[in-house]
């Protein structure tokens, strides 16, 4: 399903959660949606899921607006950080409701995952630990097989082993059947290798949309005497630099071979580090793929 985001803004009283954001997600891929606290990620995911309306602009999914649109909402599954399910429901009834709602629901997968995560079908949601409630969210998200499945920090309370299980199953399911997966996380180092395309929001604006492979291949650190590095990077996109004792390291997007032939020291940057840097740094380079 094609997602088009056209000049979307969302204002709350004093806050612009999204500020004139435009981009497109054209293919089924695993998208990493990153950004610091309050960057606007959840707001974007809620508008895309048809839960809230944009103040300006629109999101179109296959040309239609998601708000109040059953055909679309049954194709989009949003799993949030918590409070995904009514507290008085039993696990088995949560599963029944979602099985009924999503035409693409995979009961076999849901059963398998319930066993994997050791959830009791008769337990009420309110008796589940945080980790178990997160596991239930993950199970629903995966088993929905919704063509657009969105995970917004879905793993609160899950330990590292349970999170790894989630990533493994997500990848396995995705390989078996490609769908659009939008993954928002602060645990970038754990999941960055899974992303095929990365989007970074900063203070309500989109500051980066790029193929993860491009980031992997074209981001590097170049070091040498200040003058040489400055000269080399003068026509390049520098997203960070630091100087010490007459030497300079600049982090750039571009062609590594060029830097090597200029006699500078060149090192590639691990994608996790790059993403962590880009999301943490104020005023990250604007690098939005056209
Ligand atoms: N219902 C609301 N009422 C008022 N302000 C809101 C509301 N929802 C979000 N905001 C504000 O909008 C901004 C963006 O919030 P949002 O939750 O979309 O960010 P986020 O990137 O998901 O952050 P986090 O990583 O902390 O979850 C924040 O400043 C937040 O305080």
From TrEMBL:
<dbReference type="InterPro" id="IPR027417">
    <property type="entry name" value="P-loop_NTPase"/>
</dbReference>
<keyword id="KW-0547">Nucleotide-binding</keyword>
<feature type="domain" description="ABC transporter">
    <location>
        <begin position="3"/>
        <end position="228"/>
    </location>
</feature>
<dbReference type="Pfam" id="PF00005">
    <property type="entry name" value="ABC_tran"/>
</dbReference>
<dbReference type="InterPro" id="IPR003593">
    <property type="entry name" value="AAA+_ATPase"/>
</dbReference>
<dbReference type="InterPro" id="IPR003439">
    <property type="entry name" value="ABC_transporter-like_ATP-bd"/>
</dbReference>
<dbReference type="GO" id="GO:0005524">
    <property type="term" value="F:ATP binding"/>
</dbReference>
<protein>
    <submittedName>
        <fullName>ABC transporter ATP-binding protein</fullName>
    </submittedName>
</protein>
<dbReference type="InterPro" id="IPR017871">
    <property type="entry name" value="ABC_transporter-like_CS"/>
</dbReference>
<dbReference type="GO" id="GO:0016887">
    <property type="term" value="F:ATP hydrolysis activity"/>
</dbReference>
<keyword id="KW-0067">ATP-binding</keyword>
